[in-house]
Amino acid sequence: MDAVDLRGGFDLLRMLRLTQASWSPTARWHVGDLAWERRLHGGPAAEWPTRLWLEGDVDRPVAWGWITRPDRFELVVGRSEDESLCLEVVDWAIGVVGDTAPLVATVTEDQAAIRAALARRGFTRTGAHGQHYLACDPGAVAPARAPGGFNVRPLQEGEDELVARVAVHVASWSSTTMTRDVYQRLQRTWPYRLDLDVVAELNRPDAAPQFAASCLGWLDVDHRVGELEPVGTDPAFRRRGLAAAVCAESVRRLHAAGASRAIVYCSADPDYAAPLALYRSLGFEPVTRTLELRRN
Ligand SMILES: CC(C)(COP(=O)(O)OP(=O)(O)OC[C@H]1O[C@@H](n2cnc3c(N)ncnc32)[C@H](O)[C@@H]1OP(=O)(O)O)[C@@H](O)C(=O)NCCC(=O)NCCS
User: What pTM, to 2 d.p., does this model score?
Assistant: First the structure.
């Protein structure tokens, strides 16, 4: 099996395509999630060893592995997670960090072949809470009801919009890495769509746009699955129903664009129950959850 280290934008697109092709309700990655995670900040490429496995003749990716130094390891293996290919990817990751170094992989509890390969190389469960993976029928979600003084709408083109979009993300997540240029690069990454990037705007006629909450929707057109990633409300505007309103509008737009299923991931930490309560209030239900597995 041929394999190459990630060489640039075209290989990222191939990673995204494989992730989309391999999606299932219990898959670790949705294509939107991967686009978001790879474009969330400037991308310290030297700290992100990433490798693609290719089917020789047709040069088609069948697996990828991604290490975020020092010790985080992610992988997608097509072909129904063929165990020998899983082992090849796991062995690559061990080789990158070194046999005695710690390495931590995240999988869903349903990924039997990947879990078996990791177990054969000595990975065991940690006590991390992981994430709930939730899903709902987007046609059944009640329409958005924005509180007074706010307008829920998709993001538009333009510098003012971009700057305000970055500001609401930074405020919501206390982000130290998100910038205008990072967001603009994300917007140029397939399958980002402006019409699925929903914001709650303060009604302030004649003023530059200011957003209080946001929800970015991603559509996998092949599986008709829309994902919400990320969702956030500026702390100055929380508990007014704004996250619920942007999520409901994002789900409505995903449905209108062809989604028959909406998904979202959230923390399974019982001490941080707000996101789970938010998504349940919209009609999302748990489907699976992630496990963290570690060696050394
Ligand atoms: C989670 C978050 C998006 C909620 O935003 P919000 O605008 O305050 O949420 P809403 O006002 O729309 O709340 C809708 C429902 O979510 C639940 N909820 C929201 N915040 C909650 C909290 N702090 N504690 C418990 N439940 C909460 C409630 O069920 C609430 O309905 P209610 O107010 O009628 O009880 C916001 O706290 C945030 O941005 N956190 C940081 C980023 C983050 O964790 N995003 C989610 C990642 S999956």
Answer: 0.97
